[in-house]
Structure prediction request, 241 residues.
Amino acid sequence: MRASLFITCLIDQFFPEVGVNTVRVLRKLGADVDFPEAQTCCGQPAFNSGYQAEARDLAKRFISIFEESEYVVAPSGSCTSMVRVFYPELLKDETQWLKRAEALASRTYEFTEFVVNVLGIKDVGASGEGKVALHQSCHLLRELKVTTEPQALLAAVKGIELVELDRAEQCCGFGGLFSIKYPDISGGILEDKIESIEKSSADVVVACDVGCLMHIGGGLSRGSCHARTMHIAELLAKSDA
Prediction:
């Protein structure tokens, strides 16, 4: 099974270890992973800012680069939802491009849903330690409807104790450009998230989107909570073997 890795901008620029561990896990599970080097941004920042023409150009470029892939896998619910949910919306008035967008969307998956729903694997042979809490990122949960896949993978990790966050599905306040345009609101939402993390006594907060982790991690670093953040691919890549 061939999977083309879509790495996303934040991971490429700030969290390359997430990309490395995503590939490590997928190859361990038997996937043949390739990396189209021509890839750039999926266009989500432009789309969310109202720059439809610019986002449309990036969408067409992305489709042209990835449409020969058997599957496209991204360690990000946010960017996956851009391709799967919003590309067809963005290209709805261009018939041929719409068909190409819909075809690619049907083969594009967020990392955890690909592992569970396409590869059919819940136990990747990972191990860890301490108390682990899962933050449900907004696009993953609400746009892609990925609800149980991350939990199933975490439940099989040996040596960790899963703990629940109060209002685990509540936004962390990042929202990409939202946190820049509305910093006071973003910060207030983040305070609620940090409070729930402290209450859980989690050692590690795991999520499927590095944007959320960057935002939550920043909040944790400015307070007294000892918890740290980790992308789920990093945890799943850990093994005693």
Q: What stands out?
A: The domain at 122-236 is CATH 3.40.50 (Rossmann fold). DSSP finds 13 helices and eight strands in the chain.
